[in-house]
Inverse folding.
């Protein structure tokens, strides 16, 4: 039976959606397959959801693809994931051109293998003029690592700074992509109720949506359901709602 798609309100669309794409391993294990097979299917889901987000008119989509902690996995799994990321960057280039999608990166760039660094740099340069959706690949990304790097950048650029006057803006201005607005909505697939080091600073007031569905099973309708749920939320940012 067709699943009913909730109707979405154009006026209350999240500008920036972040996704913690989790559950590839469990997807494979459930089918008695090797974990890498789950990552392969996860890549297909990432392509489906990127296309869906672009069709829906989302402005910024951050995809958490590999964390600073994911190096703890076997070298076989890490190598496979890095290969898939390369494949994603190459195979999505036509789609990016057709849909004017600009690809960007967040995370610890020097800590990535040189061939991945080159692939990311090439994709960023190839798409930098596009004015459609921006896809930010969080690759070798950790929220704590980004905050520490931001502080180091600040110190480097302001060697005589008086730290007693350090502001939130000083730190925000030195994050990886200071021009990108904070995520309105952070989605996590595969049912875990944790951030796993994703956008710790920027996610302070993001709405969270946790789905039990494993990432390789994600379709356009799952993204739509998450946005429909977001549209019912009352965002207060610590204030109170005034009655008329
Ligand atoms: C997410 O899926 C992909 C990465 C973290 C790279 P997992 O590989 O974490 O899948 P589970 O959590 O083991 O099911
Ligand atoms: C978070 O998933 C990282 C990515 C999706 C890239 P993990 O599977 O690494 O998170 P934990 O270990 O369950 O917290
Ligand atoms: Mg996981």
């Amino acid at each position: 039976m067709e699943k009913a798609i909730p109707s979405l309100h154009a006026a209350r669309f999240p500008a920036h959606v972040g996704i913690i794409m989790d559950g590839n391993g469990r997807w494979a294990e459930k089918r008695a397959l090797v974990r890498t097979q789950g990552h392969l299917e996860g890549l297909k889901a990432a392509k489906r959801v990127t296309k869906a987000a672009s069709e829906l008119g989302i402005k910024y989509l951050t995809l958490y693809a590999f964390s600073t902690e994911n190096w703890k996995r076997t070298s076989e799994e890490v190598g496979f994931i890095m290969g898939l990321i390369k494949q994603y960057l190459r195979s999505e280039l036509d789609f990016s051109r057709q849909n004017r999608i600009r690809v960007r990166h967040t995370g610890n760039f020097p800590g990535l293998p040189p061939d991945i660094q080159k692939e990311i740099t090439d994709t960023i340069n190839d798409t930098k003029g596009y004015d459609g959706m921006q896809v930010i690949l969080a690759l070798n990304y950790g929220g704590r690592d980004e905050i520490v790097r931001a502080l180091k950048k600040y110190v480097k650029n302001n060697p005589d700074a008086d730290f007693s006057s350090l502001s939130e803006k000083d730190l925000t201005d030195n994050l990886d992509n200071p021009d990108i607005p904070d995520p309105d909505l952070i989605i996590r697939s595969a049912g875990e109720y944790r951030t796993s080091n994703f956008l710790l600073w920027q996610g302070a007031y993001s709405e969270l949506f946790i789905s039990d569905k494993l990432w390789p099973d994600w379709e356009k309708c799952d993204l739509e359901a998450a946005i429909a749920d977001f549209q019912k939320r009352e965002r207060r940012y610590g204030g109170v709602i005034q009655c008329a």
